[in-house]
Amino acid sequence: MLKRKRPYKTIIALVFFSIILILFFVLVDIKLRDVFYDIAEIKAVQLATEAVQKSIQQEAAEEKLQYQDLIIVHKDNQGRVALMQADALKVNRVATNITIAVQKTLEDLRWQSFSIPFGQILGVPILANCGPRVKYSIMPVGTVRFSITDKFDSAGINQTRHTIYLNFDTNLRIIIPSKTAETVVSTQVPLTESIIVGGIPETFVTVPGGIFGSGAINGTVK
Known about the structure:
Strand content: 35-45%
Number of strands: 7
Largest sheet: 5 strands, antiparallel
Distance between the termini: 84 Å
Oligomer: single chain
Order of helices and strands: HHEEHEHEEEHE
Number of helices: 5
């Protein structure tokens, strides 16, 4: 008499195979999810940085900013620079207006749809633009923090370039299928500059951050 195969052995084998298959897909999903997030993060930071820089350039053009609007240079009777002062009220007003514009620009990114071809996740250049497109979104989080710094550089014999920078830091939440995380976007953009002829007191040139010090003028905009 032939013995019947015990059905429970077949069931156990199927269950074991199913578990292995599920674990395999879970591991692949986790791996691809991290790779996709890394790509999305790079692209999100790039998009945000470009948007911030464009916004600053537009606002600076509308403000018609000039160096003398922000910095007051006092000279002695011989035409040498004796004192340099920042117009703090003017600088704060300009920085706040630009920061509000930057915040609005970042908020506009929230309503845009972005996607990455699945081929980019595989890391094969020839397949970079192939496959279905996986969507992701960007969401600004919290406030935009700004600070003003400046720097002196030699621009030739007896000439000094003085550049004023506007610095931004903001948090972005990047949302992809099955994963959400935050990253910080930091941007520094030259606001205005001038070439100063003649000597400049060492008290300005040697101090970190120049006239404004290390972020002496800063703030946040919600």
